[in-house]
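Render this sequence as a predicted structure.
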Amino acid sequence: MRLCLTKYSLGSSAPDGARACASRGARQDASQQEVYDNTARGVVDSSLAGYNATIFAYGQTGTGKTYTMEGYNSREGQVAVEDRGIIPRAIEQIFSHIGDHASPRMRFLVRASYLQARLPMRRVGDRAHCLLAAWVVSGGSLS
């Protein structure tokens, strides 16, 4: 996993020039808390310091991306604290920070988005190919 942060000033669309990158991963048997502490906590801290931040989970179907991001949800709709994923832990960290730093003269605006994309795959012989990758290589454009 490679994490890169670029700092932007509020109201500006141009980066300030500050950029930080780090590569981190987690053991297969790592707890949700370990995964959060080793991959996402610093990203959330950086966003609270003024950086735009993205946490991006990518991988093959069935490798645990949704579990890592959301956590385990039981049939009763209850999530055990230790099973919470990155998203609920990040929300908790953000609002804890707001609670610790709130004052009558300070306002906070929290914006977040979550996108889960399932890219179409096509079998060619014994290999699977991502159709998005083929589209980009052939000169496709998002505009």
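Summary. The first strand starts at residue 2 and ends at 8. The beta strands are 2-8, 15-23, 51-52, 121-124, 127-130.
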